[in-house]
Please model this.
Amino acid sequence: MAENLIISNASTKAERYEELLPQIESLVAGELDLVANLANVAAALKQTFYFFWVGFYLVKGNELVLGPFQGPIACTRIGLGKGVCGTCWKEKKTMLVPNVDEFQGHIACSSDSKSEIVLPALKNNEVFLVLDVDSDHLNDFDGTDEIYLARVMKIIERFI
Ligand code: SME
Model:
């Protein structure tokens, strides 16, 4: 695996994702341990974009349970259909929330979180885990994040 991430400071968000994706591929290549891979993916995203919070919730029985993450401490369990993460799980689709205060049932692990994007990774057509990325700025995620983070989820789907 690569030892350092190389991301140009001057590049656009899309360019930084383009630089990051192959490095995420090589980070997880040859490593079969789920926690190790998820931990490095969370760290690579945080290191590249300085997101406020980035991490995973894994489906365990009838709840999502906190997995590897980078950022402040967070809620450990989320029910199906609860909050943004539980809705992503229930609906098996990406949730892009420009203002968390306007999302009915949003779970505020931190009052500093202002906008959020959550994407599912599927195994055998069922949600296996979700990636949750939070920003401390309103309206911080757009179609570019949605496209490239979906590509990150495709990489993850290959090792789950
Ligand atoms: N805001 C999320 C909960 C997880 S934390 O943001 C890390 C939600 O509404 O599901």
